[in-house]
């Protein structure tokens, strides 16, 4: 059965950047499994102690490709790694590889980015902003180009509370071209020092440089069949190719992981804020569908269309509701690696968080590390809490308030798809079953991140039971201690009060003599 999207990708050559990242892997896997692409080239950055071919061999053995290889054993032979680096001039491409790409590629999916919130500005600019400009230059040389999908983020305009599917140059303190000029002419130290002035209301260099990249596209992408895809917070896959698949401990994934272990107990976030999370496989489907859609409407768009994927306005969960679902699942399917009974309390007050973390995290962490030290092992928890607290602080701009995000273009694209394409490339957030998806997240985390088989479930349940009893006993002891302290304080106050009354009302010796 050849649907519209399948026809579009039939016998096409696709170039993917960021293919070694989570979303890049899911996109390539979906391309190979669901379409009849001719060839997939993907950019691979050589590392100091690892060649491009070495990284490619490791990449091919990722669990995400196992279902694909069962139905198409030779599918990965269609994938060719191209040495390169989006942070380098010329993208680090050789002349030969550049000729191959410019003469063969029909579709570009630009997913490569530095997603570190604390990345020095000069590095983030090189990868996220200048890299996008260089990709556009490459695209303009491509003789067969039909579609270019730039993957941005739903938070590229996060200084705003309500974000539409349009460009917002007015929130930038300085035009993208000028910032790139600064980055080329000034020293890296100077660029990083002026970062606070350039960022303005942006909370980090990631969202800022992504906003600059969008302006680069707005101004430089003339005559390029291009669109921008803005996904919200990407978590585990929902259905395909493996339910719950996830391969990293970044951002909110790390926090869920820490809570499942019983390490993270006090959360600096707003439990009533909308959780802007989306499944990884839905994001891959939007990326592929938007490539088809922009090619279909080539020449009819005055500006590059923008597609946002976020929870629907009529179907979403809050961070508090998501945490409740996670804890309920964790009580049924705990992990053996946990060190305490998982629970979570929220606060939006930074000072209350700092004080509370002493009792929720640091004191228990010191005790745990002391036990490790006495056993001759390396203490780890206090150091981990430093990273966790920093992560909570960095994520607060996205977990401390609710954003409203329009998805008119995305919904229009969904409505324009045939029923068959909707079945093959689903991404309808209005019908997402959140309880089922949260179960997939936790199930996948248990298997792919904790790497625990279902054979360990009984052991994990016993451990969870005893941790629960110890947790309740500790709560009882703490309540008794607090109650005792309150009683002592009350007794001291009442004693002082009684003495004050006695001094006031009882006659003194002098009063008796006068009488």
Q: Give the CATH superfamily of the largest domain.
A: NAD(P)-binding Rossmann-like Domain
Q: What characterizes the major β-sheet?
A: 7 strands, parallel
Q: Please indicate the percent range of residues in DSSP E strands (runs of 2 or more).
A: 5-15%
Q: In which order are the strands of the major sheet placed?
A: 3-2-1-4-5-7-11
Tell me the number of helical segments per DSSP (H or I, 4 or more residues long).
Answer: 20
CATH topology of the largest domain: Rossmann fold
Work out the radius of gyration: 28 Å
What structural category do the secondary elements indicate? alpha/beta
Q: How does CATH name the architecture of the largest domain?
A: 3-Layer(aba) Sandwich
Which key phrases capture this entry?
10% strand; alpha/beta; 515 residues; 13 strands; 7-stranded parallel β-sheet; 2 domains; Rossmann fold; 20 helices
Write the layout of secondary structure elements.
Blueprint: H1 4-9, E1 13-17, H2 22-34, E2 39-44, H3 52-60, H4 66-71, E3 79-83, H5 95-104, E4 107-110, H6 121-141, E5 147-151, E6 162-163, H7 176-185, H8 188-193, H9 195-199, H10 205-220, E7 226-231, E8 233-235, H11 251-260, E9 266-268, E10 277-279, H12 280-296, E11 306-309, H13 319-332, E12 345-347, H14 350-374, H15 381-399, E13 404-405, H16 408-416, H17 419-424, H18 434-449, H19 457-505, H20 509-514
Parallel strand pairs: 1-2, 1-4, 2-3, 4-5, 5-7, 6-13, 7-11, 8-10, 9-12
Helix pairs in contact: 2-12, 6-10, 11-15, 13-18
